[in-house]
Design brief:
This protein has about 240 residues and is α/β, with parallel strands linked by helices. The chain has one domain (about 15-235): Rossmann fold. The protein contains six helices and nine strands; from the N terminus they run E-H-E-E-E-H-E-E-H-E-H-E-H-E-H. Strands 5-8-7-6-9 form a five-stranded mixed beta barrel, surrounded by four helices.
């Protein structure tokens, strides 16, 4: 089914590895500042997608939108219709633990969730969405080589940006979860079902515990560090 209802790209327009920020304008920023010979392959619904080269490796960058439903749609179509093998989410998250601070990077080894996204598979238990180990190991290596402050561990992918229960995230923290975001679990579940590879690399933009938040300039700098790690991970 190409093109899809959400992507106007033709088969072959999209690389085997795709970086996915939530914001399509961040996809445009990555394409313009990190890729060479970048060509726009999607503008449907304003969800911009580009393919170019980074260190002679062909790479695409595509917005995912916000939340599990949007990530679920775009990552599904990329994995199942366009031959994409690897998707690396590059986004922001809120820290929910004392050891992870503003502007740190979190590499999401696993993604807990309060969503019922995996319910579609009618499993007899609870599925644990996890990252691809090879991508995770490469990202950790490149972050360490660049002397970046990063943590590897569990995140919580929440359906709720505004939660009526103010204690909800603290209970996840009590189980060692590092940060909260809104897309990784859907990405990891879709990758598992398609037999493909996925990873989330996240910049901490704010603290749920203290209320501290980064400025727009701080977010831009920290975002570029995260993208560099993701691109080095994706490059051959």
């Amino acid at each position: 089914m190409i093109p899809t209802p959400h992507l106007e790209a033709k088969l072959g327009d999209i690389a085997e590895t795709v970086l996915m920020p939530g914001d399509p304008l961040r996809a445009k920023f990555i394409a313009e500042n990190f890729l060479t010979n970048a060509v726009c392959y999607n503008q449907v619904r304003g969800m911009l997608g580009y393919t170019g080269e980074y260190n002679v490796t062909r790479i695409s960058v595509q917005g995912s939108g916000m939340g599990i439903p949007s990530m679920g749609i775009y990552s599904y179509e990329l994995f199942n219709f366009y031959g994409v093998k690897n998707i690396i989410r590059v986004g922001t998250a809120g820290t929910i633990c004392d050891g992870v601070n503003i502007k740190d990077i979190v590499i999401a080894m696993g993604a807990c969730t309060d969503s019922n996204y995996a319910g579609q598979f009618n499993l007899s238990g609870t599925f644990a969405p996890i990252a691809d180990f090879e991508l995770l190991a490469k990202a950790s290596f490149h972050a360490k080589q660049a002397n970046m402050k990063f943590s590897v561990g569990n995140v919580i992918t929440s359906d709720k940006f505004y939660n009526d229960d103010p204690e909800a995230l603290l209970r996840w923290r009590d189980l060692g979860v590092l940060a909260v975001e809104m897309e990784c679990a859907a990405l990891y579940i879709n990758a598992a079902r398609a037999g493909k590879n996925a990873l989330g690399i996240l910049t901490i933009s704010d603290s749920v515990i203290t209320g501290e938040a980064t400025t727009s300039e701080e977010r831009k700098t920290a975002f570029m560090d995260m993208v560099k790690v993701a691109l080095d991970t994706a490059a051959k």
